[in-house]
Predict the structure of DUF5319 domain-containing protein.
Amino acid sequence: MRDHLPPGLPPDPFADDPSDPSAALDSIEPAQPLDAAERLAVEEDLADLAVYEALLARRGVRGLVVVCDDCQQDHYHDWDMLRANLLQLLVEGTVRPHEPAVDPSPDAYVTWEYCRGYADAMMNVVEDD
């Protein structure tokens, strides 16, 4: 089954289902397009994400952990899902709700701040050599 979602997101299990429980979301007003500054910030996040994945995936890091603003719980996002969410944000101005990771291994996820620090440290190692 194919749907219109960006790569990296799981397929919609209710695609073409007339009793789709998310049908109520169709009445929600569409998101406003991102302004130039917001677009630039998301594009920078995508570029950073590519660097972080290149540096950390080979070390066993599966993605990022983010504290949810709504529920104040940790949410674990694999690299592909993060990329898909950021691309969706660029295209639609919002990110759709998605299922949380099932039984994630918290040790396999790091924060944005950790990624920034790790990338900075790697740059210093390269400069010192």
